[in-house]
Structures are given as C-alpha cells and as structure tokens.
Amino acid sequence: MVNAAVEKNKDYIIKIDNLGYEGEGVGRINNFTVFVPGALPGEEAEIKIVKVNKNFAFGKLNKIIKQSSDRTEPMCTLKRCGGCQLMHLSYEAQLKFKKQRVIDSIERIAKLKDVIIYDTIGMENPYRYRNKAQFPISVQNGKPVAGFYAPRSHEIIDTLSCLIQDEVSDKVMDIIKKWAFYNDISIYDEAAGKGLLRHIMVRKALRTGEVMVAVIINGYDIPHKDKLIAMLKEQVESLKSVVLNINREVTNVVLGQETKVLYGSPTITDYIGDLKFNISPLSFFQVNPIQTEVLYSKALEYANLTGEETVIDAYCGTGTISLFLARKAKKVYGVEIVEPAIENAKKNARENNISNVEFIVGKSEEVIPELYKQGIKADVIVVDPPRKGCDEALLKTIAAMAPKTVVYVSCDPGTLARDLKYLEENGFKVKEIQPVDMFPVTSHVETVVCLSRKNPDDRIEIDLSLDELDITTAESKATYEEIKDYVLKNHSMKVSSLYISQVKRKLGLEIGTSYNLPKSEDARVPQCPLNKEKAITEALNHFSMI
Ligand SMILES: C[S@@+](CC[C@H](N)C(=O)[O-])C[C@H]1O[C@@H](n2cnc3c(N)ncnc32)[C@H](O)[C@@H]1O
Predict the structure, then answer these.
(1) Which residues form the active site (predicted)?
(2) Does 543 sit in the ligand 1 pocket, CB within 6 Å?
C-alpha cells in the first residue's frame, strides 16, 4: 500500500513512546502510528517498515540506537516465537505496563475517574509457572516440530524448552516428536485438513506432581500407542493419565469433545489452598497455580462474606471459586457451559465435603435469568468470563437482581471496562481494582474488581422486565468496533457493521437490535464480499464467538 507517511521496505529511525496491548513498541513517523515488536518506550531504533495499513504500519526492529534502562536480555533463546511478548522488559516494568493497561481501559472505555487501581501483584519467580502446555505439531524438513506460532503467522517455532512451562512439558513434547518420527505417524496439515497428529497438551498438578498427557488427533485412534505409553511411563515421573482427544473438525479450536483414556486415570488432582480439585482434559483450570491462590484470595476478600449470603459464581469452570466461597457463604450456585467441568465441580464439592453448593450446566446468560425468574436473588455475584466478557443478558440480570456486591474477575481489560461501564450505569459503583500477574512475560493481564450496589437499601432499583432479558442469545460480546479493529489490523480491510451483522446472522449468531437489518436479504442491501466474510469470521473466531 502506498502511504504518504511511510513506505514499505524503507528504513526509518523511530522514537518509541509506549507499549501497545500486545506488548509491541508504538511510535510515530511523520505523525503516523507504527508498531515495532521488540522495541520499548524511551528507545530510539532503526526499523524497516514491513507492512502498511491505512491507519498504522508495522516495523521490524533492525538496530536499537538508544536503549531503555528497562530492557533485559531474554532468558529464552528462541527469537521468533510468539509466546512471550515481554521477556525483553524487566519484570518490574512488566508489572507497571499491566497496571497502565488496566488504567487506560478504565479511563478510555469505562470512562471512570477516581477509581482505586492497585499495583499489579507479581510473582517471586516469573518463569516456569504454567501448569498446562498446549502446542500444535507440524512437520519441518521431514521432522515433527511443536511449539508456539511465530507472531501473526501459522509457522510453528520448534520449542525444545519453553521457559514459562513446567520442565515436564519439554520432556513430553520431545518424547512425542520422537515417537511420531520413528513410527511414521502422520502429522496434521492445517491447510489440507489431513493427517493424524494435531496437538499435544500436557498438564502438571503443582502440589501433587501428577501429569496428564493428551494427544489430540484428527482420527479415532493412533497406531503404536503401546510404544508411546511405554516411552511416557519410562521417562515421565508421576504420569497419571494419557488420553486421546478426538478433533476431526477443520477449526482453530484445539480440543474436540470426545476423549478416550489410553493409560491411567481420566483426571489428575491438584490443590488450591487446602481444596482438592479433579481436572479433566476439557475443563478450564487456571494455568498459574501460584497466582491463582492470590487471585482467589482477593476475590474472597472482595466478596466479604459473613456466612449468610446467597452467592452466584458465573462461568465457574470446575467450581474452584465456588468452593472457595462456599465455606464462607450460606449457599453458592456455580454456572458453567462445559458439562465435564460441571461433573468435575460436583465431584470436587463431594471430595471436599462441601454441600452448600449447586452446580448447573448451561450458559450463564440463560441459566442465571432463569434462576432469577424462580425467585433466587444473590447477595453476591462473582463473574469470571472468558476474554469476550459477559453477555449483556447476564449483565441485565445482575442489574435486576441488584446484589450488594459484584466481584468481576477478568482476563481482558477491554471487555472488563465495557462491562464495568454497563454496571456503573445500572446501579453499581466500582470500588477498587486489583491487577494480578497471572501470565508473566506475556502481555496478558488478569484483574479482579470489587463493585458494590450504589444504593444499598434499594434492592430493585432497576425496572427491568424479564421479557427484556434476551436469554436465548448465544452472541458473545466483542463489540463491532473490536471486530472492525481486528479486521483492519490483521487484513488491512475496513468492514462495516452491516457486513459484520450479515456474517453473524449467517453463522447463527444473534444480531444487536440497533442494526435493524431487513427481514430478508434485500438485493438493494450490499452483501458482504467473500474476502471480508472470511476476515470477519476469523475475527469472530479470535474473540471465541464461534
Ligand atoms: C476464565 S474461565 C473461569 C473458570 C473458573 N472461574 C476458574 O477460575 O477456574 C471461564 C469459564 O467460562 C466458561 N464459559 C464460557 N462461556 C460461558 C457461558 N456463556 N456461560 C457459562 N460458562 C461459560 C468456560 O468454559 C470457562 O470454564
């Protein structure tokens, strides 16, 4: 693309002003925004422009002319892996960056001023903290490779040792690559949708040391499985479970719905605090067990329970937060969409002798309005949604239920700020915000927020009929603007709200009423071209909306 400000393949000198949300340096050339992965604020660098969009460009770092005092030598030797965006930034500066990201979203999106936002709680050792590794597998030069994708690409960077994973995952990846190579196991080709071996997942329980290996395949079985099990048993200490996960779909989603046990148990066990949890391959379990204790303690503190409260834990996964809360509350309802996670949650409650908790399978935005309809009103509601944030139907129900406290646990400051804005406008006050570093050396930020009802004596201050609650919506909540930004940034194309609506409707997602689409696809209404449809579909995938 020709652009008056910058030219592709040309070298420039740039001053970096700040860090973008994905950890890239951001500066301006001729008043035009340029993202430079690897560059830091305060640095002056020589870069080559590698991509030019209408509103911004990407530069490749050639040489640092003036270095930031926050720069550190990354401990990892992989230069092009897209896994850790901030390893070149001192840990102290990473924590500041994460706090600033939260402040920016709260001010820019939620438009809230004078909110207490604490410093990010970091880790003593910000390496080897993950309890779950999940790598795609592919073939390069005739050999299997596994690792993160290079940034903005589907090229796998073969990772012999990943410094944010437990050492056991390095060992398991090596064993499976060797087993696949020597036994001529076919490897999945993403473009063709053919081949057997797709992904490897390794989970290790921090406290018990138990290890689970999941082999994700585009098929129903693997040849030479006895050899694989023998190799794993011989070399992996505390191997508790080897499973096959069947994923025959042409999709970016890693795990399929069907799992078969090849060896040992279908679950592994770990502890958070003194609570014991069963974890199955499909269930969500926080990946940083040390910081999970910090996060949950904060959530419990914010819930401020006396033993008399009815609590709802929306998006409860395997019931971890629910069980933490149950010991201090009268009754807890946990709601989660993944059925095996709810089965684990029920088992977890039994094994921890906790009986005042009820787990319900379903979408929070459908189940919780239904509970409200049945007359159940929570005193405290905890939400811990995926990145796309809370569905509006759930937020409406929270506003109608008017609990005295809402605790919002979030892994995306943008959607968090959007939802806080809604809650502030509908009866709640944001009291304080605590970022917790769950994902050191990456650009991801986890936050826990305490909100209280603005008028504590007026329980139902929002006149909201249940008919208004769109409890059937399956639509998640990346905004149209977020989808447009994604498409612009990744495909250099502008897409209209109309086109997004058309694609969402085609995919069976509901459309916000404000777009007021015609009942039939009138020939006079412009139709989304295929290339834009593909880009929008990718964005919807990215935001986990499909
Ligand atoms: C960020 S995780 C939180 C899990 C749990 N609170 C924890 O700390 O382990 C989000 C969870 O929401 C679940 N989920 C996603 N969409 C959902 C929905 N619409 N309704 C209920 N649960 C949903 C996911 O399966 C996942 O378990």
Answers:
(1) 411 (nucleophile), 411
(2) no
